[in-house]
Write the structure tokens for this entry.
Amino acid sequence: MTKVKICGLKEEQHVQAASRADAIGFVFAPSKRQVTIEQAAELAKHVPIDAEKIGVFVNATLKEIEETVAGVPLTMVQLHGDESDELVRAIRVPVIQAFSIRTKEDVVKLKQSLADYVLVDAPGTDYRGGSGNVFDWSLLEGADIDPARLIVAGGLNPGNVHAAIEQTTPYMVDVSSGVETDNRKDTVKIQEFIKSVKGDFVEETMEKVGFFGKYGGQFVPETLMKAVKELEDAYNEVKEDPEFHKEYHHYLSEYVGREQPLTYAQRMTEAYGGPKIYLKREDLNHTGAHKVNNAIGQALLAMRMGKRKIVAETGAGQHGVATATICALFDLDCVIFMGEEDIKRQQLNVFRMKLLGARVESVTKGSATLKDAVNEALRYWVANVEDTHYLIGSALGPHPFPTMVRDFQSVIGEETKRQILAKEGRLPDAILACIGGGSNAIGMFYPFIQDKEVELIGVEAAGQGVDTAKHAATLTKGTDGVLHGALMKLLQDDAGQVQEAHSISAGLDYPGIGPEHAHLADTGRVEYRSITDDEALAAVISMSRLEGIIPALESAHAIAEAEKQAKQMTADQILVICVSGRGDKDMATYAEKLEGLA
Amino acid sequence: MNRLEQLKSSGKKAFVAYVMAGDGGLDRLKEQVQYLQSAGVTAIEIGIPFSDPVADGPTIEAAGNRALNQGVTLQKVLEELQSWTFDIKIPLLVMTYLNPVLRFGVERFTTECKKAGISGVIIPDLPYEHKQLVHPYLDKENIKLIQLVTLTTTDIRLDEILREAEGFVYAVTIKGITGSRDELSHDVKTFMQKIRKKSPVPVYAGFGISKSSHVDMLRDDVDGFIVGSAIVEAFNAGKIEEIEPLIRAVTTA
């Protein structure tokens, strides 16, 4: 995990506020944050024993540096001037050399540094709405700098540090002015910054054993335990592996076509008469929806584990198509289980899967929809576990699936965050995403979880209405239960039998909801609402005609809720909608349900 | 004393029969149990129907659906068992997925099981790692939580599971779901020998046992057999007497 350095500390209370940081920086060069050796030595007494104490110098002599290192004492030295290679070599503690990055040439200079670590800092580009300067992180892309020696600084703050980490995957992030108020360090901002890098302490611990609050776990038949544990280990390994991330992002950009735009929806904004509305365009992904982000990640992981056979379930067919596509790309054997009912609703996607070389197995049991397809895929996995990976399509199932799927989908929220900061210089006021199992929503929400000022709203399918028997509003109407490997919220009867879900949208037709969503609902961090079939269809028409974008039925639920949400917001606010997929696959349903449309 | 502990001391090969409670109507359960007891089975697993039985093959799933269509619930099954007045000499076990138990309430489930004379509980989707959810309650009532081990259970987990095993160990003979099979794979024999060497409690082989050839193959390596789908099928077809040779193949000889 990326380390945190809090720099330019002058007061004991701020050193204490930074107790979870990995490094503390003392500035000895002339600056408003300058401290003497004596002051630093006093402050250093309050630094945890395992944290680095780093001295910052500008063109100091070796003698001055050595006296300071001994006097505080310091564990590392950071150089910000035009220090020679000889000086870098002569310093006995590890050295960080800082570079200002304006151009690609600066990046080359940085790569030649003899220092143990290189710190990249921003020159004077103005950062709208921020407190410092940010450099163009994309300059580092393709520069082939070893992330293990990279320290990123320059205009970081609690709101943008997560995006910086995602883009540069550095060894450490360095912050100074970003945790200040009126030129003085701010205890709250220091803690927020550390938290946004390291996450909430408690949440971290839970994730280790696969629980989100009380939800999650590994409730699977014994035959699958080995596979689930192996997957857990393999995923933990690649999570920290920059090579894996490079490969994953390579396919996202070169094959899927990321990053996807955050489109300003001008006519929707005008029509709804409230906040500025932006659309996150997952519909533009290759294969037509967000599902492919996860399919690539898991397929790469499966191959690392030596598994070349893939089994998957699909509801709307989007995950099935994404999986079949990736299996074609990587030459993997592919079996897709799909409910008979869904096969009827999504014939085009069934043919796409077959065309891509996948075997599509029709599931006739139960409600013959997504839940039953998951059952059959699990049974198939039980029987073929040694050489087969189960590529779950949503943030569901036994640990590590919910965490893994979330991480692979987080690219949605990470891009959105970066894009909205670039366009508006601030975070949005509200974000909406539709929820079946919850993968596009958790991918969109996760990077914003720590940004308490951003309202997060998940939209479930109310089918014919939450007070009828035909809906899929799991969080509105569900209760705690175990299904498909995890404790989550379920639509179930009093005897613990899982009930059938109903939605016009095959992708939302699932009686459970991912364990992390269940937890986020309990804690109140995310609000969950629901939209009926009719409201979703109306939103399909409205979005098609206002923006020229025909959304998937699933996404239309978020769009329908956006119209309601916009009414409670003002013109100076910003609303982001995740358009999780495009409507091509739903054209037969649209043609039937909207017959006579003028 | 828990009846499962008596089993161990008898030294005979065990035949554990599985029935799906409520398949054909809950009123049939009593006669099915009486029949199996008189046919000489060693213990009976009472299966609780569940909407999403991912560890089960088509036979038991279909039986579960028939039972669910009759409105059978965990509560009704336990009430039925509690109403019985005939003499049950053999151990009864409940086999259920976790969700009906959670919905019913774990503590209530264990006390009702106790009242119904249940000796053991099998929960196929409750792995060793999560057994704390249920085990302390069962333990209080001296009801055994039967653990499953499979061909894919790693040696480290196998040792952990066996160290705390109670009642008997349910050793799964196949990589797959329940249901009748023609052949068992040959590594099963070595697997059973390994478990039996380490296990402090009897080792019973289950999943896919439907023929006397299966029994012959594993007889020397296990303490007993669990037969499910073949019995469920026979009851459903009204030909339960056809199962008797298999019972004899296990318990005599």
User: Anything to note?
Assistant: The mean pLDDT of chain B is 92. The domain at 1-252 of chain B is CATH 3.20.20.70 (TIM Barrel).
